[in-house]
Amino acid sequence: PMKLNRATRYALYAILELASDPEKHLSATDIASKYDISVNHLVKVLHDLGRARLVGSIRGAGGGHRFIGNPQRTTLFDVVSLFEDFVHEQGPLPEPGTDTEIGQSLGLVLKEIDDIAEATLRSISISTFLKTMLSSK
Which candidate among 12, 100, 101, 116 keeps its CA 20 to 30 Å from the CA of 134? Predict the structure, then answer.
């Protein structure tokens, strides 16, 4: 499976959990305990999702976090791209071997894999994921 950093995976758990019932407010502790993940890391991720205007929060009793994005227009890529780098250019120092014929050809294959992964993430909205992916279980 595609390797995602911890923050990305936590963000997807949180967004999909919250979007599955947009009227409900969940605390970071509620989400963290369901997915057996670190509350401290999740709080940071939820803050980033709040800055991206995908998650809103209310303090106090009965408060918590809820999904405030548009589930038809928000894609998995929108969430993943907040935490993963999808820049396709080589950095200032190319990796050893990339200037060889085989290295360049391998680079093209790896870029194609990245492009396919990105296109797939862009093609799946939050609502599509919740409707189709969860019902296929």
Answer: 116
Q: Is the dihedral of CA 11, 2, 135, 132 positive or negative?
A: positive
CB 54 within 8 A of CB 19: no
CB-CB neighbours of 32 under 10 Å: 21
Q: Do 86 and 114 form a contact (C-beta atoms < 8 A)?
A: yes
pTM score: 0.86
pLDDT at 88: 55
Q: What is the pLDDT of residues 87-128, one digit of tens each?
A: 655 555 678 888 899 999 998 998 899 899 999 999 999 999
Cα gap 94→115, rounded to integer Å: 20
What is the rounded distance in angstroms from the CA atom of residue 81 to the CA atom of residue 52? Answer: 11
The average pLDDT across 32-49 equals 97
Exposure string of 39-55, with b = 16+ CB inside 10 Å and e = fewer, is eeebeebbebbeebebb
**Predicted confidence (pLDDT) at residue 48 exceeds the cutoff of 90:** yes
